[in-house]
Amino acid sequence: MDKNSQQRLTMIDSLRGLALVGIFLVNITFFTTSLQTISFGVELWNGWLDQGLMLLRGILIDGKFILIFSFLFGFGMVLMQESSRRKGSSFHRLYIRRLLALLAFGLLHGLLIWYGDILTHYAILGFALLLFQRCKPPTLLIWSAALLLIVPVLLTGASLLSPGNGSQAFEPISQADAHRIGIYFQERDAAIYGEGTFLQITVQRINGYIASLFNMLVFYPQILGMFLLGAYFCKQRILHDPNGNRKIIARLIWLGAFIGFPLQVMMSLAKGLPSWVEAVSLFVGAPLVALAYIGAFALLYQKSGWSNKLRILSHPGKMAFTNYLLQSVICGLIFYGYGFGWFGKVPPAMQMLLVIVIFTLQTVFSIVWLRRFPIGPLEYVWRLFTYWGSPVKRSGQDVSHPRQQRGTL
Fold first, then answer.
1. 146, 150, 215, 408: which has the highest count of C-beta atoms within 10 A?
2. What are phi and psi of 396, to 5 degrees?
């Protein structure tokens, strides 16, 4: 493998590491705040620092890095498909076993550790992704655009067709009522998660997991759309040669900066927006910003000064599966009653500081681990199910070509 190929593949691992820390910055709030409280938009912390950080997170982070992760899932599917073709093995059979193992991990994660699991959804939508495995790049791009636009188009159409052009179609409850409801659920969940027994926490977690499964259904078109977009980028080799595709990547950055970013600012600052405007901001603006982040990261990675700094993210990125689940275990010990019981007691600024500390420790752990082993511990178990045998040769070389397949979550 030449130097440019190695840098390219390390860049994908680094991008996955960046997505992992971005997701963690969002997920930690769900470990210490009731899902219903978040849904009703209740602000529990009034300090200027906490409110300012949450505003910045809403504009820059919320909903963007999970889309990058989804993009990389589709990208990784094509890499695995190409690897299977070179080895003469059955990609379809391998990928189905891979998805079934991912589903099992997701169920265990969601039911026993944290209700906000994303692995279950990735596994389910991974089977839908298989339907597109033979599609040509233009077909992937068309389907991706259609899936990303379907929710805002439907909501906009419903608003325009409703009486009064939709001004009363989705009348929200009053802020006072939303605040009371949000506070009630926060106090209820704090009593269970923060002070309850493991059994009580487990029952509540299962209820939250079921609710989360249904809540995520509306995002299924968006996630699958990003899967397909990642597959398109991989088949077109856009990130394989960022310098050669600089014009395409530059357009993505401009779209994110001048369309996606203003939509995110509007959604975060404006109150009482029509539902269709929020849908456009969420389902159009967020993917554009995510693509801009991907493009900017890829171009920065070509500069030696930036590449040396960003490469450190490749270590947790190669062990993304292990680190993602480990984050949930650590947060459970911090916020739930079977650990420190800090549910509802940690303000946003301290949450973000915890993320920085934990992710730094995970990065050190990943560096040390990968010096001794070619893949992470849970990555090993995952591939054990995928390949029905040892996924690592005695020489330390991954049988599935680890430099191409590491962390294809």
1. 408
2. 95, 0
